[in-house]
Amino acid sequence: MNKSSLGAVAATLVLGMACAQAAVGADEAAKLKGELTPTGAEKAGNKAGTIPAWDGGYTKAPAGYKEGEPRPDPYANEKPLLSISAKNMDQHADKLTEGVKALMKKYPSYRIDVYPSHRTAAMPQWAYENTFKNATRCKTKDGGQSIEGCHGGVPFPIPKTGHELMWNHLLAWKGQASTMLFRLFVTTSDGKSTMASDGLAEVQSPYWFKDGSPDKFNGDFHNLMLVTYGPPFKAGESILLRDTINADKGRQAWQYLVGQRRTRKAPTLGYDTPDSVASGAFYFDEAYGFSGSLDRYDWKIIGKKELYVPYNSNRTWLAKAPDLLGPQHLNPDHVRWELHRVWEVEATVAPGKRHAVPKRRYYLDEDTYNMVLSDMWDGQGQIWRVGYTLPMAMPDVPGSVAQTFGLYNLLANTYVLANYPGEKAYQYKQLPPFSDSYFTPENLAAKGSR
């Protein structure tokens, strides 16, 4: 075979690898009906008995509960098993992330209260059935930047690559459509908390439509309509985002500008652009732990480990903002931590790409693939940013849903609490799917001008 023929063969092989990475085989997928949960987690508890076996999750709503009402804390009567701070963190170092340890070192008042672990994760039966189908039909392509053949379930319940785990996070189950009133607070270095945004978020997840299929799905997996009501100087500002599974299309974004009374395309609402909803206190791709396109980073699986992470955070939504917001961090009394197994994924900026954060490490709950914690380093190798989400036990969805999130900036000595619905008329409320015309620039303009 001559050099040109060898080159053609090599190019074909590389192209094939870029086009699609094969799903797992039927024998491996069968584990989802045996030793693994229907979403791919280890069904058994740990050897120490500190992580229980998964028994189907928390699926029964309290008697008389109405959709959108504050969800009670199902474990309100439990007491912490232990508290960890800078004083004793060395005894528990193997179960703490670098970011959590950095917070303890920087703020003597920062601590985590660890409660008994409860595996409340759940999904509807039809979503489990789709997850089983996805195991053998869902594939990555475009070097992991896109996926195909997936719908209505966890895309990669038996993940083999960092890209697959990140797609599991991006497509984590939160229901088909929802609405949520929220506030976003920024606490500055002088210890003062300010409400940066007060508004309404409406979300639709066409990927999770019960009556859908890979053939019917147009690729837009996350549609967000966000309308700001306050503070007064922001009232009327609105954002529309449409995220897709197709790398060649990327995020589609529009912004309604009150002063100009018009909607414009907003291609910069992603990556490391400072998020205007948070007055620039975090980047657009730090929402929900991570959001948007995967193309700026190389993604590598580090492994699975047991860590103390925020979990079953119903008590946080029940707290009043003045009680929850401390001068340097959230009040530990209102944040529940549990021991869970998590996937660890490391992200480093890809060759030829740029990002303000050169290295990130993400921790994904094995039961839900919700990103629960993240560590981020600056160019000098210092821990710079520590991200978190606060998964809620929502038996009516059913599931453990991570809607509230935030970020600690250790160098600026600031922190953010985002998507906090406490004290609002209603909280996270499920809805029937919106019409096809709802998440459009035209409707964005109508909402912003009201």
- Given helix and strand content, the structural type is alpha+beta
In total, the number of strands is: 20
CATH superfamily: Lipoprotein localisation LolA/LolB/LppX
* Total number of distinct structural domains: 1
Report the top-level CATH class.
Mainly Beta
CATH architecture: Clam
Rg, nearest Å:
22 Å
Task: State which percent range the strand residues make up.
Answer: 25-35%
Helix tally equals 8
Low-confidence stretches: 8-18
Sheet of most strands = 16 strands, mixed
- The succession of helices and strands, N to C, reads HHEHEHEEHEEEEEEEHHEEEEEEEEEH
- End-to-end C-alpha gap: 70 Å
Helix content: 10-25%
**CATH third-level topology:** outer membrane lipoprotein receptor (LolB), chain A
InterPro entries: DUF1329
Protein name: DUF1329 domain-containing protein
Signal peptide: 1-22
Keywords: Signal
List the topology elements:
Elements: H1 3-19, H2 26-29, E1 82-84, H3 98-106, E2 112-114, H4 125-137, E3 139-141, E4 146-148, H5 162-170, E5 177-187, E6 193-204, E7 220-230, E8 238-244, E9 252-257, E10 262-265, E11 297-310, H6 314-318, H7 321-324, E12 336-349, E13 359-365, E14 371-377, E15 383-389, E16 392-394, E17 399-401, E18 405-409, E19 414-420, E20 429-430, H8 441-448
Parallel strand pairs: 2-12
Antiparallel strand pairs: 1-2, 3-4, 5-6, 5-19, 5-20, 6-7, 7-8, 8-9, 9-10, 11-12, 12-13, 13-14, 14-15, 15-18, 16-17, 18-19
